[in-house]
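Give me structure tokens for this 464-residue protein.
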Amino acid sequence: MPLNSEKKPTLLLVDDDAIIADSLEYVLSDEYRVERASDRPSSFELISNMKDSPTLALVDLGLPPNTHRPDEGLAVIRKLSQMHPSTRVLVLSGQDNKKHVFQAKEDGAVDFISKPCDIAEIKVRLKKQIIAGGGDNAGHTDIEGIIGSSEEIELLCMQIRQIADSPYPVLIEGESGSGKEVTARNLHRCSSRKQEPFLTLNCAAFNGELLESQLFGHLKGAYTGATDTKKGFFEEAGSGTLLLDEVADLPLDLQAKLLRVLENGEYYRLGETQPRHALARVLSATNKDIFAAIENGQFREDLYHRLSVLTVRVPSLNERNGDKYELLLYFMQQVAEQVATFQLDEDALKLWNDYTFPGNVRELRNIIIRLSAKYPGQTIKPEVLKREMSGLQRHNSTASSENWLSQALHGSGFQLDQLLKAVEREAIDMAMQEHGGNVSKVAEMLGINRTTLYGRMDRLEDKE
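Here you go.
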């Protein structure tokens, strides 16, 4: 989606190779207003005369007069850091030994991209810095964690910006793993409530009194096991944002109580007779057909209308043409901070782009984690990728578990912890999908108790 030039982020491009600079300007000019310089003196002049700081800078280290040394490029980075400290500087250079990378980052660079580099990767790396800097990601102010440039993602980000500061409830619809919680977090992040708490309650994870207590709190002795007075999520959220995930699984009796909160802001702690008043904005999310639930008498129609004053639909990954490759590069870069990552050969890359990813972004991310853990530093061929796309159900694969484990053990940079975490994360995700997020059933399937499951989920989330 081309933008008006005055709305585009500014990109300062410093490279003495005219062919490379022309090519980069051509492919990036749809998203950025590109300013160019070819050496240190011309870049210094440009930097000094800029009224507003450029959002990004892409700087080659090997500039004339001595293109085989990094001194001129490093001087440009230092000048930018001095005069425009908010500019996020990325190095694009063939001088990628560790000493030069370290020095460039010491002088103020935030990323180092080795030449030659695929243009799609450059776009992803630039976009990541736009997000990290809180800048204008193709107009997506303060959007974080939503990666892609498809029209569907452009529309989603536009909707987030439009309704983020509205006080009304928002119903977020989308398939499992598509990014509903990330969307909710961005609605909070882009709102005037962003300094207040953001809390998520999975309505499928608790039953009966326990779920009501999670929502509204309870007094000591209100029910068996209530040994202390406890605040609920509405109270803890204050004037922030409360996301009710899997809201279609909310029991009917609690639906009536939630409806009262949405209508007049009143709720009661369990065991308490004095009403309390909710101030939080309510977001809700579901991957179920809520209209079918209404027809079957499992969900109140009046509650649906209250929750869906505003509605956002998160597109499935298979609807997002071109984003699969951007997401591949994005998550590979994240994983590369912990372990040497893999590469896909040409045929495997075609398979990647053709695959439907029924588990959406969550499945895509988990495949990348598994491949990185098992084949660090290796080039992946289609037959290997096909096995990973079948998830943990390796009995359908031509290779036995002993074979893939042997391949992983003999791969360079093998790390047992990475492999175990990848398998653990995938097992939990698969069980969650099979049981619709019901934590009790998931824990039973995995052979652990709910407390242990919560602990493992929190630990895995902290590692991401």
